[in-house]
Fold Adenylate kinase.
Amino acid sequence: MRIVLVGPPGAGKGTQAAFLAGNLSVPHISTGDLFRANISQGTELGKQAKAYMDAGNLVPDEVTIGMAKDRMEQPDAEHGFLLDGFPRNVAQAKALDAMLQSADMKLDAVLDLEVPEDEVVKRIAGRRICRNDSAHVFHVTYSAPKQEGVCDVCGGELYQRDDDSEETVRTRLEVYHTQTEPIIDHYRAQGLVVTISALGKVDEVTERAMAALRGENAA
């Protein structure tokens, strides 16, 4: 299957993408991984992306599109893939349409993970990270440490990252609504959008998504 995964920050796209790709036996292709791989390998596209990023600028669509095209042409993606973070806007969606059409391929579905905005803010703004080891992550509501502000694992100080503040989260949501959300209408016009609730336990959301992709009732 060829699937695009879309949803606001905090919807759990990365987590769901990994589980869904495993269940569907297709590669999980994320924009973040594309950037890291191209930059670490020193590809021409990676050099271009790094130059923009080092200057504090957004990577242009054509660079991101080029990276995605190269990745989707790899042998492991021949029979399907799950795209996470690409396309990010309508221009990228149209470029993806053209890429697939030229290869005589098509998307099977665009899976839209739906989460209320207040829940997104609660999920992200409640995260606390250990200063000693960023792999130690807690949440003030869902997985609170035994002692407030102290890591259960190593005793390090827990803190809130600047980009996890409520103000920053709401800014990220506004960017999502303005830039990315319009691709849902773009794909809805093609009859590809399947919307599911991303509330609940991780495995519940995964099963809901798999059922929706099978064309079953995903309620």
Observations:
- The chain has a mean pLDDT of 94.
- Residues 166-180 form the longest helix (15 residues).
- The chain has one domain: 2-27+74-213.
